[in-house]
Amino acid sequence: MTTSVVNNAPNRIHVHDRRFGWLLTMPGLALLLLVIAFPVLWALFTSLFEYTLINPGFHTYVGAGNYAKALGDPEFLHSIRVTAMFVVAVVVLEFALGFLIALMLNDTERGKDLYYAILLCPLLMNPVVVGLIWRMFLHPSLGIVNYLLGRIGIPPVNWLGDVDVAFWTIVMVDIWHQVSFMIVLLLAGLAALPREPYEAARVDGASSLQCFWHITLPLMRPVIVVTLLIRMIFAVKTYDLVYIMTRGGPGVATDFISYFIYRSAFVGLDLGEASAMSGILLVIVLAMTAYLHRSMRAIS
Amino acid sequence: MKKFLYALSLSTLLATPLAGSANAAETVSILMEGVPDTEYVKALIPEFEKQTGIKVNIEVVNYAEMHTKLVPQLVAKKGSYSAIVVDFYWVGEFVKAGWMQPLDKRIADDKFDTTPYVPALMDLVGKVDGVTYMLPFYNYAMGLTYRTDLLADEKNKADFKAKYGSELTKPATWGDYLKQVEFFTKDGFNGVVNQGLRPDPIAMEWSNYLFANGGQFQDANWKATTNTEAGRAALSQYIQNINKYGPVGAASFGFDEAFNVMAQGKAYSYITYNFFRTSFDDKSKSSVVGKVEIMPVPGTAPGKSGSLNGAWGWAIPKSSPNPDAAWTFLKWVESFEIAKKRALAGGSPTRNDVFADADVLAKFPYAAALKDLLNQSHNFPTFTYTPQFVEVLGRELSLAVANQKTPEAALATVDKEFDELARKDGKLK
Amino acid sequence: MPHTLRTFVRHAILIAFSAMIVLPLVWVLRVSLTDKLTAYKIPPEIGHLSLDNYIEVFRSFPFALWFGNSVLIAVLATLISLPFATMMAYAAARFRTGGSPLWIAVLASQMLPPIILVLPLFMVFLSVLPVDSRIAIVIAHVAINLPFMAWMMVSFFEGDSRSLEEAARMDGATRWQAFIRIAVPVAGPGILAAGLLGFILSWNEFLYALILSDSSSQTLPVGLAGLETHAGVDIAPLAAATLLALAPVLILLPFLRKYLIKGLSLGALK
Question: What is the pTM of this model?
Fold first, then answer.
């Protein structure tokens, strides 16, 4: 399956086009440089120094020292592992559910407004509130969830206090909160699909499954990749939810990387090491992004 | 594009009136947490504004985020907060970083008397190495809240005597209390509810267990001493109280979850911050109004206490834009008259003269017990890395409660990391 | 599958999904109509229902201020970032401006945990851009939204409008006209979805809003988080405030309905 984009892709970009491209890019880029480039570069620079909050300043250059210290810390590596598991779990599950719902919704006329309005609701709640409310629902002895489970004969679940359960509880709440994010983006992608290929396929007598597999999926690939990419970046940064619900516990079962980095920066007061950890995280996420990006470029 | 330009110009238009915020010269801005004691201060502020013409602007944020919000302000040469409130956790860090102004000269110049303060609180959130940086604002020492109606019940008394051979009364020692926890746990009712959430709820609560067993966090040379007989006993008791005598999930409870279990009448006791005592008499939150009393956490022998101290202090940051106005406010809000008004509204006092005041005692008879509790309570080790130590302690305790580490192994790690932090801070040689 | 059966299954799935979203919110509604004691009663009691918490939200907390700030900031941040992001996305899709390195760098700016940027960002707004705190939050949010929105939109500009643009250029339209009159409408759903994403990001953004705000510019997330205190969580007013804070759904819906929900496709345009 090829798209018209591939066929029409210009081999050489005209100099006026190039200038026009930069003209369009500059305003946004300037704003990013002004507001976000300095903090990012500052953080990366800080990672090379012994920089603590109680003695801030670039007095002691330690080179890769902070990076070595971070990589030698088993707790840090553990939190990277837990975070990776979490990211994979929520991105995969939310994508599967989200794509299904987006496909259903795209085919629906009646009640579409209402469905859409409903799925927007969790997105407009901030994670702190979501965490507090679910903490109440999931209270082992005073929460509505265990009460309802009890009515159908299921013994109380220790949602946040059991090492084996807590991680999946966070995943579940995150799905409730964020699955709509996927739906909104994927639905927009579906809405923008051209209709001709489907009409042609119908003339050829293709089944809907064939249409999905041979038309929808290839055409949606760029949107899917971007959606996964953005969701992945947000999932890596998940902070408030674990902060409110488990504080990384029980034990270290939900000790996600952003909470870990928060602690080394503002509790351990070691901004140098926290920045180095962020730098390591950046490399990992960048590698993932480059990989996904290439797979997107390959088709467009 | 026209639409976009239109939107842009509209946005500028909308934003313009917001740009000119109030003149900072005569405004005292303070960052606080939305606790009742903050509300009592807020309610009295019109009085201060009328008296001095200084406007007070209290900004309320979530406790956990206060520190994050404060740090950039304190690192800056000139921040926007005239005065701040400091949790005892942060005292070591703030002093070490030099973020607070010494108050001694102002105290001497204005003859502000600091002697009425409870000495333990002055140590905690007042003086550091002989320099006064803060005035104690309110205390949150921990106490044992327990159900008086269950103790008074005749059947319980008889059953208890039959089982243990002693009278069922307000526990005189920690051992008595543990027996009661065991005794009351039956038929879906719990002898105790705990707050096992890491890091601070579990760390703070367990500290009471440590002190109640006669243990200490460190010796005089700042060498850690939790992996001792007392420490190990405290941790075993704690694990048992959570996993055997407590409700399902206590290992993940913050104080809100634990409070609700107690307030719904589903547990006999809960070791918690003393200001929750008032909440148990609040009909909108509690089904056990009039049935809960507070006492110092009992210790190894009658009359000894295992309570952990805790408090907030007022301070003036180095980056304060108007320290003089801030001091005017501090000495007003901490004057006997205003401190008493705050106490009468329900606040947690820090001054002995307020505790001893007849009006306060008349309105809150348990103030006398709170005064005892406070004067006997133990301080948590305060040094530059207190928050980090709380993290370590919380993590290891949580691992032990989750049966992922033995008490010995957990406490060995606690001691090891405490020593490292104390050494880094120059406390341990 | 016959058509009616398929419709039935589709709606069954959608209703089940909606129920999963809505039922917790129904319970939030119930909590908002009662007090903390009743909220935690098990087995649940309906008890005395009242609107007290809704009144309390306005009386004891500056809810109207939080809400106003949030709406203002999210709307401005979206309106400002939308044209910037659209232009960047178009340039990237059509002219490969800056190539992959620039494009990945733009996104990389969002990969660090925000907590690590708190101190330098505060310094930027303290010394380089000393603006009113609401405007500072708007600018910070634009900087957060831009990369995501631009990335999102690129794939929508990769679509079929290129040949239409070329035809228009043949007819004498400028590049700018081809962009505005043809590419932008064709990418409509993508642009709107990106706008919605930007609004949501800004609406929920917590950390920068916390660091940059003062008491007059607190947003809903910052304000509502304050209901969790050392002395417990004010769960009943929080529930009321949470539901009130969903109001933007009603504001957004008519907007979205026209383009996003009904589906604006190329076919409709031609």
Answer: 0.90
